[in-house]
């Protein structure tokens, strides 16, 4: 199980936000990953603590997903290459040690 906190660009239209979420779900559902669950929760537009790529606001989402560990590296790369993702925090849950990866999207 994994938990992702994700911030998207604030100037995206509602249909663009839905497309980003659909693309993420489709990526995880590809034959190698076969995600058994993908839940997203929108927490709305939030002010960022500091500027990211000249943005001071962003759409905040929480994602809970299950996928094979081998698919998560590709998922992180997918998020990095998506130009609409400002930042994300990927956390593995359900193990004794908490593993956290944080990345800034370069796209």
List the helices and strands and how they pair.
Elements: E1 2-8, H1 14-29, E2 37-52, E3 55-66, H2 69-81, E4 85-92, E5 99-104
Antiparallel strand pairs: 1-3, 1-4, 2-3, 4-5
Describe this structure as you would to a colleague.
By secondary structure, this protein is of the alpha+beta class. Helix content is 27%, strand content 46%. The protein contains two helices and five strands, in the order βαββαββ. The protein has helices spanning 14-29, 69-81, and strands at residues 2-8, 37-52, 55-66, 85-92, 99-104. Strands 2-3-1-4-5 form a five-stranded antiparallel sheet, with helices on one face. A hairpin with a 6-residue loop joins strand 4 and strand 5 (99-104). The longest helix is centred in the N-terminal third of the chain and has 16 residues, at 14-29. The model has no long low-confidence stretch (mean pLDDT 82).
